[in-house]
Amino acid sequence: MEHAHHAHRPSKDYGRFIATILLFCMLAVAGYALQHTISCFLLSWVIAYLLDPLLVVSEKRGLKRIYSLGILYIVLGVLTFFFLTFIVPAITISWNSFILELPAYIMKLKQVASEWKTRLPDRYGSDEIQWLIDKASGNIDTATEKAGFWAYYFGTSIFFNLFNIVLSPILVFFMLYYKQIVIDTLVSWLPDGRRDQIVDIAHEVNNSIGGYLRGQVVVSIIVALLSTIALFALGIPHPLFCGAFAGLASIMPFIGVIIATLPALFFAWFKFQSAAIIGQAAVAFAIIYFVEGYLIKPLVFKESMNLNPLVTIIMVMALGESLGFWGILLALPIASAIKITWGHFVRGDFK
User: Is the pLDDT of residue 52 over 50?
Assistant: First the structure.
């Protein structure tokens, strides 16, 4: 009987494994179908996560959370009014200017690709080189033709996501107001023997994720401001657009530094046609990212996540492919949470 019992056990484990895979597939399909809802929820969660420490400080000083929320929303309302009055018009003007100049950019890229195509064969005269050049120039033509669609799609997607922008403050309010109730409910569902241990690990993960998200927001804002100021000083077109892009690109580890410079270098080359201004822009970004890497980040990120670079790249690529922007933003916090939990498992804390 004991032999028969062990004989059926592998099939049961295999069935559970298949059921787990099917469950993850169903969750993936549901996540894709509800991507806009999930995006709105994640946006609200990140905002609430960033604002909660302010409420915790006010609660420690004896102010009730509901009153702290009221004061916080009044301050945010004033900042939003300032943003809509001064910042949004400037960004809109810059974006409209970029859209109007986009056909000229596309024609210039095609012209450069055509000139490059006619020059290189005379120098190298190889059929293989000719094939590679034709392939590369064809890809350039395809990319430039799609650039307009991408630009217009980006602009229209912002308009269609206005619902999320309006809904997010409401979700943030309830997330912040009912935070402790949700936490107490989740803790009550934990098994009694593991409750304190899991809560301690959750606090450790929370400190790591919270420190990263708040630090990354600060770093991105500083990079965006410094980049915008530098591009204004150099007279490079669309400094607000390039500065905002640089701030967002700083979220990506390692390759974000390279990606952030591409729009600014392109606009500098298009306007001035000079290697000197391109060199100045490259030096400006090199200084900014030197300051970011060796001065700002050590101050903002007091506790490093100490993640393996290979693991970091794989997580960013995998989650970025599946979740887009949110995957890139949350890749490192998720990797850090897995690392912390796995560390406790390896030490035998779950025995």
Answer: yes
